[in-house]
Every structure is written in C-alpha cells, then in structure tokens.
Amino acid sequence: MSKEHEHGMSVIVKTVTRLTVGLIFLYGMYIVLHGHITPGGGFAGGVIIALSFINLDLAFGGKVSGKVFSKGGTSLVEALGAVMFLALALMGLQYGGFFDNFLHPDGEPGDLVSAGIIPLENIAISLKVGAGLFGIFLTLIVLQKFESEKKQ
Amino acid sequence: MIELYVLLGLMIAGAIIAIEVKNLLSAVVAVGIVGLGLSIIFLLLKAPDVALTQIVVEIAAVILLIRATLHRDIALKPCGSRPFGGFLAILFLGLAVLAGALTFSGGLNPFGSPLMTVSEFYPMNAVAGTGAVNVVSSVILDYRAYDTLGEATVLFTAVVGVLTVMRSKGKKKEEDLQGNNE
Amino acid sequence: MNAYMPYILCLILFCIGIYAVLSKRNIIKIILGVVIAEYAVNLFLILVAYKTGGRAAIFSATENIPPQSMVDPLPHALVLTSIVIGLATTAFMIALAIRLYGKYGTFDITRMRELRG
C-alpha cells in the first residue's frame, strides 16, 4: 500500500473517482461555455466544477486535493472571477453604460462565438460560484476534521 | 398535468418525513427527496436552466449537510418541540392560510395563464438585442445584470461570513476559558 | 380540478417549512425547515411563470419557434440567482450550527439557553 491509500475512502471509490472526475470537470466546462445557446450557464457550470473538486476531496482525503487547490488559491480564483465580472461591466461605460453589451454584433445567433460579452460573463460567474462553493466546503469539512484530530 | 400533482404530493410527504423523523441522517436524505422532486417539477414546467441548477445545488447542499453535521454523536437523541412553539406555529399557519385564501380569491392569475405584460419584451427582443439564443441567459447577464452583481455580492458575503465564523487562529484565550469551565 | 390547486399545494409545503422553524428544538431541523420553505418559494415563482402548452425560452437554429408560445423567462432568471444564494445561506447556517455545537456540545436550542453564563 502506498502512502496515498491511507486517507479517504476505499480503493473502489478511488479508482472510479480517478476515471470519472475529469469527465465531470469537462462537463462543467461545457455547461459554462454553452450557457448562451443551451440550458445551463455560469451558475450550474460553476457548481458542477466545484463538485468535481469536492468529489476528489471526499474520495482521497483532504491532503491530496489540497495539493491541487489550496485555500489561498481558492480565494485568488474567486477574487479573479469578481474582478473579471466588474471589469466587463466597467468596459461597457466606454460604449454606452454599465453592463453595456459592447461586443454584441459579432457572430451569428446560435454559434458558440456570439452574444457579445455574455459568454465572458458566464465564465466570470462560474469562477466566482465554483471557487466560492469549494472554499466553503474546504472551510467546513477539512478544517473541522483537523480540529477534531487535534482534540484527540 | 397529473405528474405535477403526484410529484407535489411526494414532495409534501418528503417534507413531513424530514421534519418528523428522529434520525437526522434520514431527515437530510428526505430533504434530498424534496429537492430532486423540485428539479423534476422545474423540468415539467419548461424551465430547464433552473432544473439543471437545482439538481446540482441540491447535491452540493446534501453533501454539505451530511458531512458537516452527521459525524457527530447526535443521531439518536430525541428532538422534541419547544414550549409555546406549537401555539406560535398554529397561529402563524392560520394567518398563512388566510393570506393564501385572500390571494387566490382575487389577485393571482389561474395556473397556466401568466401575466405577460412586462415579460413579453424579453422573448420578442432577446435575439436581436443581445445575440443570445437562450432567453434566460440574456435576461440574467444583459437586461438584468445588476441582479447578478447583487448575487455575486451576497455570495461573497456568505463566503466571508463562513470563513469568519469557522476561523481557528487567534482563539487561544477562548480555549483557555473553555478549559477552565470544564 | 381547481385552477389554483398547484398554488395551494405549494402553500402547504411552505407552511410545513415554517412549522419546523417555529416548533422544533434541534438546530438541524430548523435549517431543514428554512431550506424547505425556500424551495416552496422558488416553486411558486416557477408555477406563476408557466403557460399551458408553452415551450422553454430557448430559440432554435433549425426550427422556427414563435416568441408568443414561450413561458415567462423573467421568474426563471430570478429563481436561478435565488437558488445559488440559498445554497450560500444554507452553508452559513451550517457554519453557525457547527460553532454552537463546538461551544455547547448539543444541537438542542433550549439546552443552549440553560448553559449560558
């Protein structure tokens, strides 16, 4: 047994997680990027992306997923999403007003590259929601676990 | 629309089980039933965006509730009612039923015929105005983007609140106090 | 069947949530009551938006869908943001409950009052 198997759930869960977690992440990206032409969008896609990290965390224990995404990194990504959203809104001031859709005439309706700034705003929202939810999860679960271990 | 009534009945049964059952794990799972039934109802009512978001958020909420609360030794303790709680609840429910009766007797349109005077603008002009085929997406990110900005603010505040409540550094004095009490 | 029947069932669901908030002693049960009431409010907004025989508010490149046949998209947008806010507030309530458990060693709110001071 390697050191990796000491934490988290059983080997079956770990193997299945290893096979599926990438697909879940890709599905979240798909939902975000196609938010303006199919059902979905930044909210649902962001939560799916956060759930793929939560899946990793639950299966392998806190130490392995902490290597992928620490708490500081989570805060950074969330702030990045907020700044991106506000920057897109402020860029509209140059063209007509706050949240003006200044890229709008590019692309045919129904294409992937269309609808102006809406896909970009979807990406910003997904970063914000996903990183925020994963940050809440890390705080509630992982820190709590460390505290209970310390008490014992 | 018989499926709608069946699912609503299932949700009400799930809610009653969630509130009256003794075991907290069973209660959380019953709330999961309510949320997933809600997701299917959203799909039946032609709201696929909301259905997708609801099913994902429900899974996340159940994971949080189970993992954050149920590794503690609280599962089999009885959870009774508060004194005066029953009286307050009956009073409030009576008022709620009265308000519902007053609302349904006049102001609300019957089920299946919405009041479209304002919202008709969005399907008519969304594709020409924003280029987005999904009308809901164009509403939340273009016509009513201030809503989304407010939502982002509330989410940020909630994350900061959780981090503040759960912080473990700088609590040495309080640990000493607890040690004295024990 | 009555045309207001879904609204009445939705009101019953809301009342169940409020009953749990008002009369239960366990904090987790109170959180579950808030969550159920929130689901009922979201459901009510989507019920108001439904049009009989309506279609989802998404246009298609291959098929011509008249805008008049679509359901009301505005409550869908409002509920979409409300669901995510509900998750965030639920997480905040769970954090408060965990802190209270760490301080008092119980989820029973009447025992918390006794242990104070």
The number of domains of chain A is 1
Q: Report the order of strands and helices of chain A.
A: HHHHH
Query: Could you please say which CATH topology of chain C applies here?
Result: Helix Hairpins
The greatest interface between two protein chains, and residues involved on each side, is: B-C, 88 and 83 residues
Provide the β-strand percentage band of chain C: under 5%
Major β-sheet profile of chain C? none
Q: Which stretches of chain C are low in confidence, meaning pLDDT under 50 for 5 or more residues running?
A: none
- Computed structural class of chain A: mainly alpha
Please, how many helices of chain A?
Answer: 5
Task: State the domain count of chain C.
Answer: 1
Q: Would you list the SSEs of chain C in sequence order as H and E? A: HHHH
Helical content band of chain C: 55-70%
How many DSSP-defined strands of chain A? 0
- Helix-strand category of chain C: mainly alpha
Assembly level:
heterotrimer
- What is the 3D form of chain A? elongated
CATH class descriptor of chain C: Mainly Alpha
| Head-to-tail CA distance between termini of chain C | 57 Å
Question: Which spans of chain A of ≥5 residues are poorly predicted at pLDDT below 50?
Answer: none
Describe the structure in brief.
Chain B has helices at 2-20, 24-44, 48-69, 85-105, 121-130, 135-143, 145-165, 172-181. Chain B is an all-alpha fold.
How would you describe the overall organization of this protein?
The complex is a heterotrimer of chains A (152), B (182) and C (117). Chain A is mainly alpha-helical and 152 residues long. Chain A has helices at residues 11-33, 42-60, 62-68, 71-91, 118-151. Chain A has one domain (3-151). Chain A is elongated. Chain A starts with 10 loop residues before the first helix and ends with a helix. The model of chain A has no long low-confidence stretch (mean pLDDT 77). Chain B has two domains: 1-78; 115-169, no CATH class. With 182 residues, chain B is mostly helical. The mean pLDDT of chain B is 78. Chain C is an all-alpha fold and 117 residues long. Chain C is built from four helices and no strands. The interface between B and C is large, with 88 and 83 residues.
Explain the layout of strands and helices:
The complex is a heterotrimer of chains A (152), B (182) and C (117).
Chain A: H1 11-33, H2 42-60, H3 62-68, H4 71-91, H5 118-151
Helix pairs in contact in A: 1-2, 2-3, 2-5, 4-5
Chain B: H1 2-20, H2 24-44, H3 48-69, H4 85-105, H5 121-130, H6 135-143, H7 145-165, H8 172-181
Helix pairs in contact in B: 1-2, 2-3, 5-6, 6-7
Chain C: H1 5-23, H2 27-49, H3 73-104, H4 109-115
Helix pairs in contact in C: 1-2, 2-3
